[in-house]
Amino acid sequence: MNNTKILCIGDSITFGYETEEAQNWTTLLGDDLGVEVINRGLNGDTTAGMLARFQRHVIDQKPSHVIVTGGTNDLWFGLKDELIISNIFTMARQAKFIDIVPVIGIPTPCFNLNELNFVQEDYAECIRSFQNTLISFCNEKEIAFIDFSVNMDRNHFLEDGLHINKVGQKLMVKNAKSVLMKLISF
What is the spatial distance between Cα 128 and Cα 134, in angstroms, rounded to a whole number? Predict the structure, then answer.
């Protein structure tokens, strides 16, 4: 019997903004793998918010794996990569300490190329730079990660250029599955 239980904590990309629950990547992933996948995404959440609810929404649920995906809202507010990564790393360390396998989700890109963040920076470029910094960090610390941006293009997004459409949800499943199949024993 497989005791795999994956908990996904994140922001609107994890939650499935404007997507029916049955079409959300977390639901599709659970169906595809035949394991329990719990969605703890929260629209508008930051990594500080995720960290604040980590005990209640992750540790208390006793998953075997946690996928931590966040940072895009932090970047919108102008927070620096180092602060965002410290929050993500803290969640990964807490999980690992109690034998929950942490997996970091690399955020999807932004295709709204005209949007400036709260401090008037190029928001799409902030996300692009953060993706690279987070991948380097995961490699350095030897933390498993899912690069949700792999093969993503404008056609995978809603009109806002930031949130994922139904086609993009399926690509997120494919990207997640390619990593999780190496981490889960069936």
Answer: 10
